[in-house]
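#structure-requests
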Amino acid sequence: MQKRFPRAFDALADVFRFADDFLAVEQVDPRHHYAVHFALEEVFTNLVKYNPGSRQEILVGLDRASDRLLITLTDFDATPYDMTRAPERRTDVSIEERQPGGLGLQLTRRLMDDMDYESNGRQSRITLTRMLR
């Protein structure tokens, strides 16, 4: 199931409704819903925040393959940036010593079982996998 959404923070409510409809149809156990919402919010808002000049919509795809849930977000007008290679942030130091940013992606990595990035010209796609066990 795929749907395009405006490149805007206020589109998140529609993204969540889209995800909730999919999760209901696929009868995905509710214990996975938070992880799906968190990952969608983190990646979608990063695509909006770090590419504000683009007018292209963002394509969100959800698919279930047996015990795997696949979430894809495709940006059609983006400078390549592989968020799967974002450095881990230190959480074992005081808040004053920490660098700002990056914790959302770090938590997304922990909530998902896999993150994959593809880029072709100005088109970028991030695919997140969550095992439904």
